[in-house]
Amino acid sequence: MKNLFLFAAAFCASLSCSTPDERSAEALADRIVPGYDIKFKQIDDTLDVFEIQMIGNKLLIKGNNANSMAVGLNHYLKNFCDVTVSWYAYDPVQYPSQMPAVPEPVRVEARAKERFFLNYCTFGYTMPWWKWEDWERLIDWMALNGVTMPLANTGQEAIWQKVWRKHGLTDDQIRSYFTGPAHLPWHRMNNIDSFDGPLPQNWIDAQVELQKKILERERSLNMRPVLSAFNGHVPEQLKQIYPSAAITDIKEWGGFDSEYLCHFLSPLDSLYPVIQKEFLAEQEKLFGTDHVYGMDLFNEVEAPSWDPETLSAMSKGAYESMTSVDPDALWLQMGWMFFYDQKHWTKENVEAYLRAVPQDKVIILDYYLENTPVWKLTDSFYGQPYILCYLGNFGGNVRLAGHFHEASERIEDAFANGGGNLYGLGSTLEGFGVNQFMFEYILDKAWKLESDDDRWVETLADRRLGYESDVARNAWKTITDSVYVGGSFSSQTPLMCARPCLEGFWHWTAVHNVNYDNKTLIRAWKQLLELESDRDTYRFDIVNFGTQALGNHFAVLRDQFTEAYYRHDLAQAKKIGALMLDLIDDIDALAACEPQLRLDRWLEDAAACASTPEEIPYYTRNARTIITIWGTRTHIRDYASRLWSGLVASYCKPRWEMFVNEITDCIREGRCYDQEAFFQRLETFENAWAAEEQSDDYRTPGDCKALSFAAIDRYGL
Q: pTM here?
């Protein structure tokens, strides 16, 4: 007893003078679980590590820094409290009123030096309208999940304004060079200019203040935010201002008209380091630096030359332009282009490009582990450090997609065989709105946890429900073993969210194939419906699984409808067509139960960016465009399709209603369906919807379980 007293006294004394990292961890805990008595202690350790133990009724979390202590807190919440912390600010953290005990001390070490998170595209598909409270929760979520290297693209347009003014451009020219907010990621990646511009000045100014808050909080939690560097993207006006500069036109991207395509200044040109110096200097004045810079010269576009020596010289020139300003600069380079364009990015070209940079001065994001780990194609990136990344989501599609077990196997393979230059682990998801469990799982793999995949799934089921249940565990085992069995790929969407067609899917942006029997998903859905829980996570799972199951059934009805057309069976076509439209309504009603899956939230957040009532239509039009028509042509239309209530009712359903009417008219009139002519009519509707200024009539959220049972009964599932 005496020893316990002395230990407790020493413990209390040790907490009387806290470090900045301890205070950051305490502030995080106060935001997430304000009712819990948790103390944090920073320890000296060369490893990222956390320790958890109970001292009387208090929880003590030790770690080498605030980030590790945050992971320790999350480990406690997930494994002892059955708590999931959402990455959305509007989702409450639901935790037990009494702190559960930790029977034995826990110590866990990291096995990945860095943990990366986010994607350039996420800033368009998810975050363009976010305010500080949204970012605050995401940063907390990232800390809880051990992220050390987040992408930090916010606010850079203000810097570019300063730079381009120095080169003689007017403010009107500069703002017209920028795209609308939701399309800025592709402007930043040298893909498109001017679309939905000019960018309002109030948005530019507000983003600067937001970025300052983001960076301050991320740094306080031991993250190294990845800021931007100059990637050669310049306004068209520079061709006139510097007629001898090596500026080339980007030939094509995304099917956009030539007026929206970009212009590239070669890193071999003497003007390149000038602009780089100006940009990095202005950026450091506003935002400081952590010496890590994202810079991608040729994302989804052709290089001016595919000669290995030229690529090597360009890579060397781009890197040296950074180090001339910041000698400690680290270049973070997406490995996406090495996967995306393997025709041009041969082993010879990749090697020339990477070896031009001094060893350990460029970090490659191996972007898409669930499809093609590029480290295997490039001799582990020829010794340069790389971060293995799970992509997991394209365009913010909400479809259930991912290969749980294969992702695990590929991560273990990389740790075992990927070379000593495996620098970290992370995720490069394009959008949120999906179940976050896969991304939490990937980040957990960065730590030496004792639990295997089966145990991890059991604890997942417990925290989604809020208590232990064999039924829930069995349902989640079915989901991870038999539904999450196909890797993520672009444009995975339920058929009803895509343009109507008689067979298959209309375009590469609207792939609806599934890799499992829908009966399997329905069985898991029904199992969860047997249970009771007041957790938001439980409600989300009911809605998420249910809308997917119903969406899969819609494809069955579409095929029956097509058969009726080919048989010239008007009565059957009318019957099945009516069922299809009813099912769309039922899906819309079920999605309305979940805040993540509502169009009105997206549009309201966009409208809130306006500084005057007159600006509201600008922001809402940009918000509507990115999730539907996307750009000027059909090349990437439906790419970012969302199964969102309000969008399903006002955009998806009218398209299918037009289709059902057209097909039944064809049968009645004895004529063949002309898809090209129909698509022309459809395009008129789609473009008009994206340009609308009035809000839609949104559903009031209902009872997700009652709606689920009714749909199961109505469609005989």
A: 0.96
